[in-house]
Amino acid sequence: MNIFGIGQSKATEHLEEKVGMGQVKPKTVRLITADLEQKLSELFDLEERLLEDNDIQNELIRSATTRIEDNNVEIARAIKTRKALTEVFQEMNG
Question: Which domain of life is it from (predicted)?
Fold first, then answer.
């Protein structure tokens, strides 16, 4: 097993330094490192999902921004058209 670049024997050494020589059983180290590897894998999966979600949100923002810009262009056209029609009606009536 290898977690964070530390092999099982190295992990055993570190644990034995903390709790005393001969106190750490290889099975304990295997269980701890397996649990840590599982949690690390879950964190990497979560990070990947968050990055994907972020990409999706960014695309939604870009799409919404484009729609807003398109709407602003349409509003500007409508204002120009209304202004032109108002001028035409004023000329006809006045």
Answer: Bacteria
